[in-house]
Predict the 3D structure of the following.
Amino acid sequence: MTISSKNSNIVWHHATVTRQRRSELNQHRSILLWFTGLSGAGKSTLAHALEEKLYQVGYHTFVLDGDNVRHGLCGDLSFSNEDRIENIRRISEVAKLFIEAGVIIMTAFISPFRADREKARQLVGEDFVEIYCHCSLDVCEERDVKGLYKRARKGEIKDFTGISSPYEEPENPELLIDTGRQSLDECVDQILVYLRQRNIIK
């Protein structure tokens, strides 16, 4: 998909209510937690469990879930390599806006290609935290919550990550969470420790 170049007549408007002022109002910093991993690795489950914990103590959060986004913002995209790239580009831009809004934003997408995740990192900068939900293909297939692996093995789903389309593991993620072996609570606690170390939360 071709993205048109920026129009020279479009100028970024600098608001008087800044990210810093929103952070002061919210009493916490904003950041992007980018969950990546195979289908069935527990990305959405972990992101929403973390959000619940943060919400209970008053933090401003939002989860951009892969399936939910494809119902609207990215509803026109397929799962071809080209459209996967565009999917992640759109999500990256939306996530950046959430950061400016002072929100702890979490994205739960397979995002299989390192280059796309690197582009998201370059766009967001130091506020980008890559969280690799590490789970073996065997375990993901055993879970097969949505029955997608069975369909992919039968050839009913094309370009399915881990089966007929590659997944490029993160090489240096900020966090590697062993979602295949650790309990959900242990995974959440690991992220909370990291956020406290970064002074994102208290």
Summary: The CA atoms of residues 16 and 198 lie 27 Å apart. The chain has one domain: 19-197. The domain at 19-197 is CATH 3.40.50.300 (Rossmann fold). Strands lie at 31-36, 61-65, 104-108, 128-134, 175-178.
